[in-house]
Design a protein that fits this description.
Elements (H helix, E strand, L loop, with lengths): L1 H41 L14 E3 L5 E3 L8 E7 L4 H17 L4 E7 L5 H11 L5 E3 L4 H5 L7 E5 L5 E6 L7 H11 L11
Parallel strand pairs: 3-4, 4-5
Antiparallel strand pairs: 1-2, 3-6, 6-7
């Protein structure tokens, strides 16, 4: 009788040794999957063409807040997400400047949102060195990357007058190219919309 009890105890002990780690592993796997789902919800996907642009407010280089939606209704906006330490951004910037010099004004605006942690301390010398004149905003937390689901810099989003995404550029683009300029021109020709009330 005593031998059978001991054998039963040994059997239970062996089962714990075998199944215990498996159960623990299953709990860990479920935890990882739940965490991943949380991260996916936390980091939004890049907006698609036709979707509403995701609104934001960041300070300009004079620390005045600039809100994307304040341009909706009468301006095409090119959002450029970039950083001073980004080599591809440095290559793209002169083409953005050329675009701004050609179209910047009543119907078109560029909002270059820098994710530099030093903010204007890094941006102002870079801007001066590159001879850039279009508006630059400071996002020292890099929150726009999560908001727009970006995977790197630079990335650009062209927003039409209705506040919808009209074009997405992942990586550096040459904004002097005719096809890109033709897109901007066509969007600028669209009628203004009274989305903000009186100016």
């Amino acid at each position: 009788m005593g031998v059978k009890v001991e054998e039963a105890k040994e059997g239970r002990f062996i089962r714990y040794l075998v199944w215990g780690p498996i159960v623990v592993l299953l709990f860990i796997m479920v935890g990882v999957l739940l965490t991943r789902e949380g991260n996916i919800e936390d980091k939004r996907l890049r907006p698609r063409i036709g979707e509403p642009a995701r609104d934001f407010t960041y300070p300009d280089l004079n620390d005045r807040p600039v809100t994307l939606s304040s341009f909706f209704g009468d301006k095409v906006v090119l959002i450029n997400i970039w950083a001073t330490w980004c080599t591809s951004c440095r290559e793209e910037m002169p083409t953005l400047q050329a675009l701004y010099e050609k179209y910047g004004g009543e119907d078109f605006e560029i909002l270059a949102v820098s994710i530099d942690a030093l903010g204007k301390e890094a941006i102002i010398p870079f801007r001066k060195e590159m001879g850039l004149t279009f508006p630059m905003l400071q996002d020292i937390s890099g929150s726009i990357q999560k908001l727009y689901g970006t995977t790197g810099v630079p990335e650009s989003f062209v927003v039409d007058k209705m506040g919808r995404i009209a074009y997405v550029e992942v990586g550096p683009g040459d904004w002097r190219e005719r096809k890109r300029q033709a897109l901007i021109e066509s969007l600028m020709k669209e009628p203004d919309h009274n989305m903000r009330g009186s100016k």
